[in-house]
Amino acid sequence: MAGLRRLDAFQKVRRDVQSKSALGGLITLVAISAAAILFVSEIFLYLRGVTRHSLHLAQSTHVPLTRPSHSISDMPGKIPLKFMITFPHLTCRQLDFALDDASHSSGTLEKVYGRQSLTLRTPTLSELRLAMETGATPAQTRNGCTILGDLKIPLVAGEFAITITRRTWAEATSTLLLGLLDDRQIPDSGLSQKLEFNVSHYIHYIRFGTPFPRAKDAPLEGRLHTIQNKMGGIALQQIHVKLIPTIYQRFLAASTTYQLSVVDHTVQPETLVAKGVPLLPGIAVSFDFTPLAVHHVESRENILVFLSSLVSIVGGVFVTVGLATGMLVHSAAAVAKKLD
C-alpha cells in the first residue's frame, strides 16, 4: 500500500487548509455549465452524423436486347417510372400514351410493359380542381382524363409522351383552319357544340426510380401547366430530364436513388406544323442518365473518438478553469503584496 501511495498522481488537499468562497462557487457553476453544454452538443453532433459527398463513375449495366412483342418486366437493369397527370379539357378517348416505340393506341405498350402498366380514367373532383385555375364544379367531372403509369424502364435514354390522338389532331387542325373555335356551328352537322382541344394539364408526379430523400423539392411534382394562345390551348410541352444516379448511404443502410435536373419549354402549334415536329400536342418527356454518380454518405465518428471527446470536454473545462483561477488568484496576491 505504501508503494501505491507514492504513485498517487491525484494528491488530495487537506480540508483544514481549504477555503471556500462565493466567487469560487460562481466559478464552479460556470465550469459545470460550460462542460454540460459542450457535453450535450457533442452527443447531438455524434447522433446527427457527418455528411460527405463525392463523385464517381456511374455503374454500367448491361441491358439485353428484346423484341417489342416480348415483355421486359423481368429484364435486369431497370428502374420504375411512375406518373400521374390530369388533363381537365380532354377525354381519355382523345389521348394516347407512347414510350419509345410502344404506344397505348397500337396495343404494343401492354405487350411490352404489361397490362397493368397504364390506367386512363375520369378524374375526381379534387384532381380537376388542381388542374383548373378557375376551379371545377361537379358537372365538369364528366370531362377530363387522369393518366396513371407504373412501368419499369431500362437504364438508357428514352422518351415518353402523352399527346392527343392523330384523329383528334386532325379534327383540331380542320377546326382551326375553318375558324370554328369555341361555340360555333359545325357545317353539315346541325349541332352546336363546344370544340375543346386544350392540352393544359396538371402533373401530380413523375418519378424515376426512388426519389432522393434529401431533396428540398421535387421538380416534377405538383406542377400546373396552363396553355393560353390564340389556338385555344393547343401546344406541346417538352420536358428534358437529366437523371443523376445517387448512392444514398445512411449509416449502415444504402440505397440507389435519382436526382433530377429539369428543363422545359412550350412548342406552339405554328412551330409544330411549320417545322414538321413529329410529336403531337400534349406533353413529351425525354430523359437521359449522367455518366457520373453522386455518393451521399451519412456516418458517425468512431465510438472511441466520441468517448475520448466526452472525457476531454469534462477534464479540459475544469483544468482550464483551474488554471485561469490559479493565475487570477496568484496575480491578485502579487498585486496585494506590492501594495502592502
Automatic annotation (TrEMBL):
The chain crosses the membrane at residues 21-47, 303-329. It is a multi-pass membrane protein. The keyword rRNA-binding does not apply. Residues 4-104 form the Endoplasmic reticulum vesicle transporter N-terminal domain. InterPro entries: Erv (IPR045888), Erv_C (IPR012936), Erv_N (IPR039542). One of its GO terms (cellular component) is membrane. PANTHER family: ENDOPLASMIC RETICULUM-GOLGI INTERMEDIATE COMPARTMENT PROTEIN (PTHR10984), ENDOPLASMIC RETICULUM-GOLGI INTERMEDIATE COMPARTMENT PROTEIN 3 (PTHR10984:SF25). Belongs to the ERGIC family. This is Reticulum-Golgi intermediate compartment protein 3. It comes from Seminavis robusta.
